[in-house]
């Protein structure tokens, strides 16, 4: 009996694997071949644009088995030298190097160099821009592990976190722009005026011109992707870019910029198109209010955003502001596969030790799913293994946090919740790793019975804490989800599409994934939040066009030009006005002819116009 049961299970398992394999691998492959060879997508191979090979030696610190000296205690600031930034690995406390902060004079110089380089770049062909992006894409693909190791070394995350959150999303973005960028940025014919008399004469279009020197001020949580995303979009739109990286990840940012410069040089382009600056907050205002910057993309926290936007307003520099969130996952009671779903929630919460702009901050469940998830999470989260997976041989589930400066804040949030009735199932405090006592680890934490009276319900955690919240019904779930000051991304899971689709419409949020988590980011949709999560969009079509001056062009229709006709002011309304009444009547009839829906009124007005027009 046991043997039969076992065989049956094995058969079932194999069957499941092959269905998954069919849906995830075979079907997409068939679709790819279909779109490539049958419908001839624009991704055609073009010899002129074929990517070049770039070789750069990987830094010693990112090699396997690197032994660096440990700092006691590790800190990015040096008391004796306030104009230096010290870099170290947050997972091990190992020293990575010291950099001079960028001085104000150096900022001026770098912005000037970028401005100069951009003059030629502004009118470069899309084919050379694609060649550059393809060269980068090739480099990234061929060096996935090295790039991941560099990102891990500087941020303390695991290699798997880096491969998904840094490498894959960057490859997606670069390839999406290679395939779609030119279509989005070429002059765009518009319908023109609704008045048919004007429409007949005028053709209208929008031309996308680069803004000049743009800037990206980026957070440390994805040192590779957060840096590469704006660089890829800015270069493809014909801009030069000055990136201000976080003080926390100077070591890796310097190396990634070197890589981009190497790609530019290999393609015969000006490496000054890309610049890097880093400084402590006291000099940040000088940068953000610099008159040489034509646009700022800010990715970071709300308090810093206030300072950036205020400072940028001195030059009226336009900003796109992408801040954090208090993203929720709403789980209805009819979810069929709780096993698949709980894994999605765990990844969404604990990837990069919870330091994600679109990480899951709240899991809002209807009563039945609440009980089920409570059981599953209680079993799974306590088994998470912490460490530095680029240094040790055994498997690691979660890496370190970037710094130890928020541990007490996280502990306060947890204590506040527990004092108001939450149940701390596992974790809850800083973790002293036996092998890496200088590493910044926090225990993976599960809090259940969380409700809206607790600070942790409203304040962004940005750490490895899963909070479970019970809702009576769908209305309460939606209202709980909507009730924070943020509105970045949300997910909703259930079996009845009509119902979950309706919930998606009721969420006050910049992005929603239906029966999925965060894939809106990968899909190159416009990305950005509402409420205190920021404004403006990067990513997708809007992300490219927002880095452009959308120049509106109006001109006579080509056939008028062909006949040598030029539109001009009709005599009745030209200076000096000969007859006031006639002039008034002329424009009145023009309005009737253009906008009156009744055909006879139109015809009568046109008759009057024809009579008075000469
Ligand atoms: C850093 O600044 C010091 C002077 O304060 C200078 O001597 C040194 O060369 C600088 N280092 C680098 C890498 O620029
Ligand atoms: C959010 O949810 C509440 C409660 O269901 C609802 O009244 C509100 O309209 C929703 N949308 C927004 C934009 O707040
Ligand atoms: C889904 O929900 C809608 C609205 O409540 C209902 O009318 C419909 O019958 C449901 N569909 C299924 C398949 O249960």
TrEMBL record:
This protein's record includes keyword Oxidoreductase: yes
GO molecular function: oxidoreductase activity, acting on the aldehyde or oxo group of donors, NAD or NADP as acceptor
Keywords: Membrane, Oxidoreductase, Transmembrane, Transmembrane helix
Regions that span the bilayer: 15-34
Keyword Transit peptide belongs to the record: no
Domain Aldehyde dehydrogenase span(s) in chain numbering: 81-553
Matching PANTHER family: ALDEHYDE DEHYDROGENASE-RELATED
Entry similarity comment: Belongs to the aldehyde dehydrogenase family.
UniProt name for this protein: Aldehyde dehydrogenase domain-containing protein
Taxonomic source organism: Candida verbasci
